[in-house]
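re: that chain from earlier
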Amino acid sequence: KQWYQRRVAITAGGGAKGEPGKSGLPGKAAENIQLNPYIVAFHSQKNVAPKCLEGMTELWTGYSFMFVDAGQDNKWSQNLGSAGSCMREFRREIFAECAYDKCFRYSGQHKTNWLAVAADPGDVDFVRSLPRGGFNTQEKIDQYISRCVVCETIFKLVVVHSKTTENPYCPEGYDPVLNPSRHIPNGNGARVEENWHGYSFWQVSSYNFGMGANSESAASCLTHFSPTPIAACESASCKIAMTDRTRNFWQMSQYPAQNDYEDFFESTSYISRCTVCRRPEAKDFKMGPRMG
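^ sequence. v structure.
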């Protein structure tokens, strides 16, 4: 009988539905996981590393690497906007040349080429102040080789070239970004741009080999217009390239000067200007944890 009573209690219908309970405490906000972020490199053209923009994550800082010269028929480069153009350590020798039976650690033809520090705005004596011979001490390398930073971001940068001598406006819905090198003062006291405005860079060439930056890359908007873009390094030393065989190319404005040529610093009157932009919400965005 007792078993039967318990059975009835278990199988009988339940009572009326109770009142809803109280709301719980808010949960922890979800974190974004970005599987395919953009990896970008910024170059200061100075011997102090630039900084990532707000909302970006710094991955590393280093030295601004441009291209390898392994002889007349063997040259290859890095786009200045890619992470490969920012070497964490400076080494004059960074590659070996291998045949089927042996490898050569270095050769008299092997050179690495690095972005050199730029002149301060209007510093017409800059070239005369550079060393004419080779240099190989870490002190001199740190003095004359540009620094860089590699950053991770979910928002793509957009660069606009005006083809005039005026800084262009950003597209609708985009804002100019801050200059990643705005914390680095000019040695001659010239004003440092707060926003990223610059000169429309195309490429440098050395002995019939050219490399540069894609025009859609922020690296094509250099904040300094400078006559000495390359430091060429052999196994023993480095030297700032100052010959007619090493040239730099810039986009012209729509209204070039009347003369066939101008002194370097006077030629800014017909060099196109540029602005780097991004979505305004990018500065408030924080990258979530990495997978792996």
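The chain has three helices and 17 strands.
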